[in-house]
Structures are given as C-alpha cells and as structure tokens.
Amino acid sequence: MKNLxxxxxxxxxxxxxxxxxLDVVAAFGIGYVEIGIPVEEPHLDGAVVRQTxxxxxxxLTKAEIVSVLAEIRSRYSFNVILMTYQxxxxxxxxxxxxxxxxxxxxxxxxxxxxxxxxxxxHTFTTAMGEKEVETQLAQSSQxxxxxSGKGKTGEFTQLPTDYLKLLPYVKRRSxxxxxxxxxxxxxxxxxxxxxxxxxxxxxxxxxxxxxxEGGITGIKxxxxxxxxxxxxxLASK
Length: 237
Fold this sequence. Notes:
This protein has helices at 15-27, 47-56, 62-75, 86-91, 130-139, 167-173, 187-195, 205-231; strands at 4-9, 32-36, 79-84, 104-107, 123-124, 144-147, 178-181, 200-203. It is an alpha/beta fold. It is globular, with a radius of gyration of 16 Å. The chain starts with a strand and ends in a 6-residue tail after the last helix. Pfam families: Trp_syntA. It comes from Candidatus Enterococcus murrayae.
C-alpha cells in the first residue's frame, strides 16, 4: 500500500507500543507515515488526535525526537513526514534536525520559505487562491495533500467532496501524486477517492481510533480491510 499515508503521534501511547504499531505499518508495505510532533494547543485537530498529543507533549524532548527518528530510519523503509505546528517547530527546534532523519515536514498553520527547502508537504484546500496554489505546488515534495473539506481532523460524519474541485487542477500542474485526507475512514471512502482520480489516501484519526479500540490486533484487521482496495489496481503504482 505504497499510496497510503497513515498518521501516528510520536511515542503514543508509549515508545515501545508506538514501534509495535510501526512494525505493523511496515509489514503492510505502507508508503508514508506522518509522525505527529505534538504541541500544547493542536487547534486544528479533532479530539482523537488532540488526546494523543496531550498525553505525549509534556514529557517530549528534542533529544527523544532525534532518538526515535534515528531508530525509525534504521528499521524501516517507509517515507517519514513530520506533522506539526509552528509552535512545534519552535519548541523542539525542528529546523535544526538533520534532514537525513525525515523526508518532509508538514506544518499545518505555517508555510515556510527556504527553511525546509525541498522537504515540504503542503495542504491544499478550495479556499486557496490560484497564486497560492501555484506557489505551494512549486515548493511541494513527496505528495500533494488535498484536504477533502472544511473542518477539523476526525470530526467528519461522512467524507466531504470539496476536493473534487481542486483535484484536476493540481494533477495538471504537478507530477507528484495527489492524496486526499480528512474524513477518510472506511475502505469505501478510499475506493471512492481513488475512483474519483486521486492517487492515494491519507488516514489519521481513524487509524488512531482503530488502535484505541482494538490495539495492535485492531489495526492489523483494519489494514487488512484496506489492502484489497490497493491491491486491485485502483491506486496508482
């Protein structure tokens, strides 16, 4: 499932269990993992992700982040995307990390110019103007992150379709794969996204929820349900 992106908050619920989850992710051949770097006030995230960040943030240090990322690099081959806020970049001095420790950074409330050149993932919404879209496409790496619709992560009752207005535009203007996130929960959601022309999907809150409810077994079962969607050739290779 090379065109699936999964979100996990670093060291949630513990470092040991976090790596157990990554073992599962690697076994299923997931292409990208968003490693959430928590902040004190993750205001754009819904309750599921927020609670993971509230648990981890008080005891997290820059040294621990470096240690975890180094271990990930030594054990796995999936691409690592750091997901955080401007306050996370400042608090943990992420701009000082060796760029060999990760493949790109996604800062949800700030766009960077030069600081992380060549290592940026941007989110794209229908509220953006054409110039802003063009600028961020030129700066993007790894994949194009299309936000399915307006709202906080994990708080959609059904998959929005706002992204359909922007999807053809970005695909014409970038060779990067276009992935859709926010509100993606079920195999049917993923199948719909791929059938509508996206190259892959991004799952965050639902993956955490599956773990919270079913543990390691729960996420194995969940990924097993998603696997046929990608293996049947719907996702771009």
